[in-house]
Amino acid sequence: MDLCYFAVDDGYAEAIIRGLRAGFLNEAQYTQMKSCTSIPELKSFLEETDYQNCLQADQPQIATSLLRQRLKKKLADEFDYIEAQATGTLSKFLFHLRCRFMIDNVVNMIEGLKNKIDIEVLLSNIDPLGWFPEIKNIKVLEGDDYANLYRDVLIDTPIGVYFMKFLDESIENMHENRTMNDIQNLFKEMKPEYIRTSLKKMWLEDFFRYSEENLPQTSKEGLVSLLKFEADFRTIQVIYNSIGNRDLNTVARIQTTRKQLCPTIGTLYPDCERQYLAAAQLEALREAVKGTENYRDLLKDAPDPLKREEFNVSTRTLDDIMYDEECRRYALAFDGQGSYAVFYAYLKLKEQEIRNIVWLAEMISRRLAKNHPGWKKIIIPFSHLRK
Amino acid sequence: MSFFRSQTMGYYKLIVPRESAWNVMNELAELDCIHFVDYDSALPLINRPFANYIKRCDDLLVKVDNIENEMKKNGKKISYCKDVQLLIQKFKSIMKERTKASHTYLDEIESLIDNKNGQLIEQDTYMESLQDRKNKLIEFKAVLLKGEQLLGQSFFQPQNYQAEGYVDISNKDFDQLRALQSQVKFNYIVGVIGKEDQTRFKRIIFRITKGNVWVNILDIETDQILDTKNQQPVIKSVFVIVYPGGGGSNIITNKLNKVCESFTVTKYTFPENSQIYQQKLRDIDGELIETKNLITMTKNQLDSYLEEFARVANDSNCSSIEEIKLFLVKEKYLYQQLNYMKIQGSVFYGSIWLPEGADNKVEQALRQIQQTYESLPTGQLQITPPEGTKPPPTYFQTNDVTWGFQEIVNTYGLPRYKEINPGLFTIMTFPFLFGVMFADIGHGFILLMAGLYMVIFNQSLKDSDSLFRYGLQVRHMVTLMGFWAFYNGWIYNDFISLSFDTFGSCYKLQSIKDEFDDKYHEEWVRKENCIYPFGVDPVWSVSANELAFVNSYKMKLAVIIGVIHMTFGILMKGVNAIYFKNWLDLIFEFIPQILFFVCTFGYMDFLIIYKWLHEYNPSTAPSIITLMIDMALAPTSQVIPPLWGDGWSEQQTSLTMITIALICAPIMLLPKPIILYMMSKEEHQHNPPDKQLYEKMNEEEDHKESHVVAHHDFGDIFVHQVIETIEFVLGSISNTASYLRLWALSLAHSQLAEVFFDMCLAGSINSGGFQGFIGIMFGYTIFSMATFGVLMMMDVMECFLHALRLHWVEFQNKFFKADGYAFEKVSFSKVLQEQAQPKGE
C-alpha cells in the first residue's frame, strides 16, 4: 500500500538516486584504471568520469589520503543534496545514516588526540558525511576521560545517546567495589577501536529498531534484511577477530567482551548466541552459524585466524569475503523500488567504490607488479547482478 | 537534389605529417565540410595523442572563467562576440603575422593567462588580507565599545584595579559582592565570535566550568564586517567571560583557552585603564581610515587591471577576454578533432566522410597550406573503400526556410543515408494540415501577419529585445502556417465564427404558404443553377442544421486528405525500394500495400466524391458508412440504395475491391520471409568459410551494428513480417480514423471562437444603444484576451502538435526508416557560435 504514495514525498529523492546510479564506475573503467601506471594518470582518468569536478583543482600527484578526502567530499555533497530534498521520515532516516560517520569521526578524533596528532590534520581528515559542529570542540578535553567528553561536548550531539549508553555499560561491567579512579583508569586504557565497535553496535541496534518501527512497510522489509545481515556480519567479525586474541586470555573475559560487542539483532541472535560466544576456533564458529542462510558457505573460504601471522596482501580475508557478499546484497537492494533501502544501499556502494579507487591508487603508488594478487582485491558495485 | 535525398558521401583517408597537423586542421575546419570518423571510440581521452593539449585548454578556460567572474564581481561590462566570422579572420591574421609556428600561439596565450591570473590571485589575496585587517580593527573597536558597556564604567576605577590582567567585578547593587571585593580576584577573556556559534559557546562554557563563570554576549551592530571571500556582511558578536581565579595558569583558564581555540574566536586584550582605553580607540580609528584608503587604492588598481580585459578591440568587436576564451575554445576543438586520427610513426591517419564535390575544396586547401607555409609538408587526401559496417552519415544542407521542417523530421529520427527525406514534403504538408485544423480567416490572418512581420523585419528584430526574436528561427514556418489557416478559413468560410457573404448566397428567403394551416412562413430556397464559387455558402451559418452539415463536410474532407497523404507515403516506399534496388520490398511489400490501401480507403474516397457530385433524394440517399459495412459483411448482395446504377454493378465493383484487398494481405505476409530465408540458406551453403570469419571479426569490432545485419533464423524473420503486416493492415484503418483529428480540431476551434464571440460580444452588439456600448467595451477586452490566449496561443500549439503527430505517426511510418546518424562537420564557426553567448542565457 505504501508504494502507492511513496512517490508523493520521496519520489524526487529516489529519482535523484537513480540518476546518480549512472555515476558508478563500470567494469571497463576499472580495467582502465588498473592499467594506469602513475597517480597523475589515474587522476586524469578519474577526471573523465563522474569524479571530474572534485579533483580538478588539485595537483596531478595527489596524495592518496587527499584523494580519499575529495572522493568522500563528493559523496557527501551528493548526500547533502538528497537530504535537502528529503522531507519527513526520509530526512530523519537519512540523518540516521549519517550517525555512523559521526561515530567514526569522533573515535578518529579521540584516537588522533591520544596519539598527539595535530588538530589541523585531524580536522582535515574528518569524513565530511559525519561532520557536525561540535566535532571541533573535542580537542578541549584533551587528556580528559570519556565521561567528561560526553558530559561537556557530546551530550548535545546526535550520537550523544550512544555514547551515554556506552559509558553506562562500561561502568556496569566493572567489579562491585569500584572507585572513581578505577573508572578513570578504565577509560584511559580503553582502546578507541573498542569504543568504535561498541558505538557502532549500538547505532546499528538503534537504527534497526528505528527502521522496524517508523518506516513504511516496503522500506522496512528491505532495510531489516540488510541490517540483519550487517549485524550478523559484525557478530561474525567480532568472534572471528577475537579468536586467538592474546588480550582476552580468560574464557570469562572473552565471553563478556564478545557479548558486549555483538549486536543483539540479526538472524544469529539469540538462537546461536550461546554457541558463537563460546567458539574458540574457526571450526566452532562455522558450526555455530551453519543454520543460517549461506553463512557457512561464506565462512568456508575464510582463512584461519589463528594463523594470522601468515596473512599477506594476497590472502582473501574474511572482510573481503563479507564485503563481497554485502556488495551483492546492496546492489540487489538498490534495484528495489519504492524503498528507503535504496538510499542505504547507495551510500554503501559508493563507499565501496571509494574504497576501490583508494585501494587502486595505493597499489599504483606502490608500483606493484600488474600480476600482483592485490589488483584483484576490488569489489565492483553492481558486478554481481550480471552473474 | 540534395534535399530529397541526403548528399552523396565519399570515404577518404586524410594523411597528415605530424609537424603540420595543426595547420592542416586549422585550415580544414574552416571549410565546414568534413566529418571525422573516430578510429576507436572506446579509446579513453588520456590515451590519445593530444590529450594534454586538451587538458591545458581546459585548465586555461577555468582560469579565464575565473578572470571573467572577477570582472563581473567588479562590475565590468564584457561585450560578447556577435560575429564569429570576424573573430576567425582575426585569428587568421594573427597567425599570419607570427614568425614562429602557428600552434605555439597557445603557449603564448597560456603564459599570458597564467601570468595575469597569478597577478589577479595575488591582488585578491592582498585585498583579502586588507579586508581581514579592516575586520579585525572594526571588531576591536566593537570590543572596546561593547566591553565598556558590559563591564561598566567601574572597570576603570583605579581603586578596583588590582593587577595586570585581573579585574574586580564590582556591581554596585550587590552588597555582598562589595564585601568580597577585596578578596576575590577575577579574570576575564574578551573576544569576538560568530553569531551562529553563540549558543553552543555559552553552553559548553557553562558545562566545563559548572556554571562558575559569567558570560555575556552582545551583537555587533554593523554591516561593515565583510566575509573576505564573498564580500557578504557577517554578523559577529562580542563576548566577555569573567571568571574567578588567581593569576597564572589554572584549570579553568586552560580549559577556557582551549574552548576559545576550538571555536576559532579572536581574543583581544582589554586596556587596563581609561587613558589607554581612549588612546586605543583613537589609534583604531586612525588605522581604520588608513586601511580603508588602502582598500580603495587596491580596488582602483584592480579595476584598471581588469579594464584591460574588458577593452573592446576594433577588429573583433568583443572584449579581449572573450577573444582569448574563444581562441581557447577553438584550439581545444581543433585538438579534439586531431584526436580522432590514428598516429603511426610521425604521420596521422584520419578517416573522413566528405560530401560530393567537397574533395576538391579540401585538396585545394591542402595545396594552399603548401604555398603559405613553404617549410611545412602538407597533407594528402586518398579515396578508399569504407571500413567497418557503419553506413555514411546523413547530410542535408538546410537554409532558413527548410531548417525548421528538417528539424521536425530529425526530432523523430534522422533519415537513413540516401533515404527519401520526409522533410521536403513536410514543408508543404505540415503547414497545410495545420491550416486545415486552424482554419479561420481572422486567426489565420493574424498568424500570417505575425509571420510576415518576422520575415520582413528579421534583421532588425534579431538585435532587439522584442519577444518576436524567439520566434525568428521558425518565421517561415509561421508564415506558411498562417497562410494555409487563412486559405482554409476561406474554404470553410469562417471569420472568427462569422461567415462572409462574398459572392452572394445561392439561397434566398421565400415566403411559402403552408399546406396545413394556410399561413405564410419564410423558408430558404435555393436559386436555380446557382453554385457558390468558393468555399462554403454563408447561408449555412444561419441555418438550423449548420453543425450537421459542416461536420459531415469537414469529416469527409479530413478522410480524403488523410487517404491522399498516406497513399503518397506508401508511394514513397515504392520509390525508396526502386532507388535501393530492393525488388523484394517493391513487389511483395509496396505493391500489395498500395493495392490494399487504394482498394479499401481509396475506394471509400471515390464513393464520397461520387456522392458529392450527384444529387440524391434526401429520403433515399445512400449512406457511405452502410456501403462500407456492407462491402465487408455482405459483399454478394445487391446494394440498396445504390450510388449508381441498379445496385448490382456497384456490388460487382465492391466485391472486386474487397477481393483484391483480401488477396493482398497474404502476399504482404508470406513471400518475403520465405524468400529471405531461402536466400540466407543459399548464402550459407555457397559461401566459403572465409567470409564468415570476416563477418565474425566485423561483429567483434562493432557488434551493435552487425547484429542487425546478422543472420536470423526463419522464426525471427517471420515474426517480424507478421508484425509489419498486422501493423499495416490495422494501421490503415486506425490511421485513417486518426486523420479525423483534422475535423475534430477544426470543429473545436470554430466552436471556441463562436462561444467567445457569443458570450462576449454578440449580446451587446444586438442590444445596441448606450448599454450595448458599455457591454462591448467590457466584452471586447475579454474577447480579445480569450482570443489571444486560448486561440492564438493554446490552439496554435495544439494544432501544431496534432499536425506533428500526423506527420510522425501516420505519414512517416509508411516509408521512413529514420535510423541515420548526422553528418557532424568540423567547423570553427559552429563551436564558437555555441560558446560566444554569455553563460546562463
Would you tell me the structural class of the helices and strands of chain A?
mainly alpha
Number of helices of chain B: 26
Rg of chain B (CA only): 42 Å
Radius of gyration of chain A over all CA atoms, rounded: 22 Å
* Distance between the ends of chain B: 38 Å
Largest sheet of chain A: none
The total strand number of chain B stands at: 12
Shape of chain A: globular
Helix content of chain A: 55-70%
Helicity of chain B, in percent?
55-70%
Major sheet details of chain B: 5 strands, antiparallel
What's the tally of helices of chain A?
18
The low-confidence parts of chain B are 158-168, 170-174, 688-710
Catalogue the unreliable spans of chain A: none
Counting DSSP E segments of at least 2 residues, the number of strands of chain A comes to: 0
Through-space gap between termini of chain A? 32 Å
Write the H/E string of chain A, N to C: HHHHHHHHHHHHHHHHHH
Most extensive interface, chain pair and sizes: A-B, 20 and 20 residues
The average pLDDT value of chain B, as a whole number, equals 84
Portion of residues in beta strands of chain B equals 5-15%
Structural class of chain B, please? alpha+beta
Structural features, described:
The complex is a heterodimer of chains A (387) and B (841). Helices cover 64% and strands 0% of the residues of chain A. With 387 residues, chain A is mostly helical. The mean pLDDT of chain A is 82. Chain B is α+β, with helices and mostly antiparallel strands. In chain B, α6 runs antiparallel to α7 (251-262), α9 crosses α26 (828-836) and α20 (671-686) packs antiparallel against α23 (714-738). Helix content of chain B is 59%, strand content 8%. Chain B is extended. In chain B, a hairpin with a 6-residue loop joins β11 (507-513) and β12 (520-526). Chain B contains 26 helices and 12 strands. Chain B has helices spanning 21-28, 51-73, 84-97, 105-151, 175-180, 198-208, 251-262, 274-310, 320-338, 358-372, 400-412, 422-437, 441-456, 458-463, 475-492, 546-579, 583-613, 624-633, 648-669, 671-686, 689-701, 703-709, 714-738, 741-767, 769-811, 828-836; strands at 9-17, 35-37, 166-167, 186-194, 214-219, 236-244, 266-268, 342-344, 347-355, 380-383, 507-513, 520-526. Classes of the chains: A mainly alpha (387), B alpha+beta (841). Chains A and B meet through α3 of A and α2, α6 and α7 of B.
